[in-house]
Predict the 3D structure of the following.
Amino acid sequence: MKRKFTFVIATVCTLIIAGCGNGGNTNSGNNGTATNAPKESAATESTKAPAKDVTIKMFQFKVEIAEQLNTLAELYEKETGVKVEVETHGGGEDYGALLKAEIASGSEPEIFNNGGYTALVPYLDRATDLSDQPWAAKLIPTSKTPATVDGKLYGMPMNVEGYGIIYNKDLFTKAGITEEPKTLSQLKDAAAKLKAAGITPFEATNEWWSMGMHLVNVGLAHQPDPKKFVDDVKAGTQTFKGNAVFEQWLDLVDVIFDNAQDNKMTTDYATQVADFASGKAAMMMQGNWTQGDIDKIDPALNLGLLPLPISDEEGTILVGVPNNYVVNSKSAHPEEAKAFLNWLVSSETGKQYLTKEFKFIPAETDIETAAEDIGQVAVAVQEKSATALGWNWDMFPDGVTQGFGAAMQEYLGGQIDHDQLLEKLDKSVQDIVKQ
């Protein structure tokens, strides 16, 4: 029996009920500035930063919200006098390596992103305990897990996200596909029908993180006990090569890669999303974080979300916390950083940006969502969350997923075969563990 992701609990039902409705999105399209941004009420006065003429730095990786986050930082400065300097590194960049270099240079950003689990360990000497923050008691319980150590919460969950196969419903209709494919055989049939109709089935990307984290995680999540599998691989008592689940997983990888666009080896994330949004392919493996970028090209695109199957059993989407905001105790202004994060999830302006501009599924149970705000893909994530599996890549030490990504890039380019790919996945783990 596969371990199901425990995201669906009573508190999450609140999110699902609030979020479901007619699909679609009414993004303002005004360069990330919210329309009719609400004025702050007296009730939010307590969330304002405690100091004036202070600059705090946020070192963050979420490229999809960089523009909107910069605008939000400007609004916060106008209201409080505290300047939030946002530095974004993501997409094709190695955020983890850049963060290490930033700190090694002597710079200590007040806020930085961290995935939790083993990725948090190197930063525990500077991570601030946020357990007493007013938003902590309002979190979906499972969203706390990646950043909780010995009962203390060392990060604010950025949001809840899910990924699978985003598809263009109109192109499916054009190809005569009347039912959503849920198994691997059905997905293969759908790809064949799309090809027969002259439609490219998949828009793939060469990004190491998309393949090395998200795609490899499909095989990890389908293990009977993902944590045990990861621990055993790190200990050298289990391997990717010879594992029955990963042998099946290879079939899914082949369906995507063999039915993708011709220039997949040179297609970065931005190009992948732009080409998909332009109707150049019917499907792409991505998550609800792409909604904002899709809407910039075609806000009327009719979208759905398919599971990622590895066999003739019905597949699932994958749901988890993408990252956490960590407050750096070694920075100059950790208290002001905590005040900004509290404002982000308690003020009307912050909450509006989380849902309407960032298009996030909030990790806080008291922030309401609407389909027209968070978008069709996020609504589909909520609807399909009952059978979702989890995210497991952050259980590996830093550097392992980069190795996974490099191996996947070689396989994407046809430079290695099935066995060599699985061997390289094993080697990626042992190369880091044995250091």
Summary: The longest strand covers residues 161-168. The chain has a mean pLDDT of 89.
